[in-house]
Amino acid sequence: MHDTKLSIGGCYSLLLILAATIGLIEYGGLIAQPGSLLLTLTFWGSIIQGAVAVAAVTALVRAQWIASLRRELLALYPLLLLLALLFALLWPQLDLFPWSDHPTIWLNRPFFMGRNLVSLLLTFLAGRQLALHSTSGAPFKDRYAVIYLATFVLSQSLLGFDWLMSAAFPWISTMFGLYFFTEALYAGIAVSGLAMLLYFRPRMQTAPKDTVRHLRDVGLLLFGFSILWAGLFFAQFLLIWYANLPEEVHFVTERLASFPERELCWLFLLGLFLVPFVALLGSQAKGDLRFVSAVSLLVLSGLFAERLFILLPAIPYHGGALLLYNGLIFVMLLLVLHSSERLLPSASFLTKD
Amino acid sequence: MQNTSSTEQIEQDVLAAMSRPSRCYLACIFLAGLVFLGGMALWSRQIALGMGVAGISHPVGWGVYITDFVFWVGIAHSGTLISAVLYIFRARFRTSFNRAAEAMTIFALMVAGLFPLIHLGRVWLAYFLFPYPNQRQLWVNFRSPLVWDVFAVSTYMLVSLVFFFVGLVPDLAIVARRRPGFIGKIYRLASLGWVGNSQQWRHYTKLYFFLAAFATPLVASVHSIVSWDFAVSIVPGWHTTIFAPYFVAGAILSGTAMVITLVIPMRRLLRLETYIPISHIESIAKILLLTSLIVGFAYVVEQGLAFYSGNLYEMEQFRFRALGDYRLLFWIMVSCNAILPLTLFVGRLRRNLAYLFILSLLVNVGMWLERFVIVVTSLARDFDPYAWGNYTPSFTEIGITAGSFGLFFLLFLLFIKILPVLSITELKER
Question: What ipTM goes with this model?
Fold first, then answer.
């Protein structure tokens, strides 16, 4: 079995090759429009950081449900480096942002690149320390979980304010930072649901009772986060709609008046709230592996639709490149999940708490 | 007191708190009652003389009374958080605090409910706040968040009361069993015929979980709506999308601080050290730290984005808060709510009860000031410099505020002698 699993060296090599491939496509004259890289980054930035953050939060609160999955989620830490590598490739594309012609103290090229790169690298280092200390056999070090979460909040806030909000500069929403790190945690739980499918489906009938209970907890958390997400979404856009200020409301009206943003809006409302809420309302659904994993996939699709909804009017993109980048990173994620036992060995204690 | 798992011992220890009151307790009751009566006297004076005795005037039409309303609604939040949310998350440490926190919720809501009435001036016209058919040629504005507030706070009050009472039922039956005579009969009546058979437990567990699940989104909705009292306006400093989660986090911060303020002395005076271990207090201190981090994050985001936006009015508002006439209050607020709680990263301090008690008092001071800064500074520096003006609370407003604290502590002191301060049945399970 081990020959199909990545070693840590092989994993980093593959990440470099992946980043180089994307760089080649972006700058090798293969595509005319830039923007697909930024869209891809905003999507996977939340998923990868969110998955590791879920492992960190659950370690701090001593949650039981994570025991079946902690190794898989923590094993995703090398992908945090991929985010930094891909972000570095954005440097020549900063013209995409409307502020690039009129730089300000906060929004100017060197500072923008510098602070985001530093935060992404810090998140990778903190995630790595968290994962390695979880598998060292020593007592779990809560402080690494705290450090990771601090860098996670910083990175996700920058993702919200810098990567997404500044594409519509000077439009602002103070909710963006908090909204996106909450959404990243939601995405992390959805990754847990998918990992359940990949790991436990073949042996669900013979899985220990704990694993079945853990699946129910994943379903419950998805349900809870769908309500939380809807609350934040409502709290944000209610105020914009209510005040009806021209400098604020145009962000929504522009998007709702054109194709495909209007349709994307329905898609992410369905994927992030309506379907998870209705589908997981019953207790039986929360314990059904196929149901929970289908909802997880829908949540991730909703997240992707939301990123498109926010960025499409401001950022050009190449459909083929967008599909290719996301496909490649998805395959990489599956490979890393598949290789988790090899990437994080001697983790027997992980399942004990 | 010995650490025993005996259910008999648990009942004895918890119900001992309801025994004959000590002199110290009576002195506390007297003091709280006196402060409350002082506040009532000042309110009566305000009713007799009119709103001129309060400091609120143009342009600051919302002052200390609205600050007090938001503060007490915030305090009311933690009861449901600790009790319902932690119940759903199966957090064991909840048993040390849930009863006191739920009682605190009820009392804080009762106190909060007074302030819109006090602020009205002509309190006999309070029914205008409620939606009613338009025989009086008046139809309330359903688009106003002030009307949403009436629904939100009253729903929260109702659900919190039911949740509190349902949680009490098995304990009331225990009190009834141990109390002879007429008083015992009253407790028996209140326990609704509870005998503790398996059928009753099955229904009880289902209902309690349902109420917990129902109350949890209410926690978020109530304070979100309170935040929209401000945020739906276009006043600089108020109209900001982060207000709802920021108010909710702030409410949980202040409520958690109040729980610590109440439980630490209660634990010592009622000799409940065995049932409220330091490890549980440390857990609640972590919630204080977490919510303080969220509040600190909101402070940074609000200030930062005001300058990021380049909006002149927003920039002036946040400059005024940090450097203007109310700067002292602003910096005390920041220190108490976002800087001092960072010391809780040190495990030794989280377990130091004296330190935690002092910190909880400071956080409550900080949270009251936060509401004051939000309410007053935005009104004092609106769009038009011609209409700018500062506000200083009058003696009447300060006295009524003190009176509200008197009422709150009076009600809490009465609670600890009338009802079990810890959930006996849950302690037995633990």
Answer: 0.90
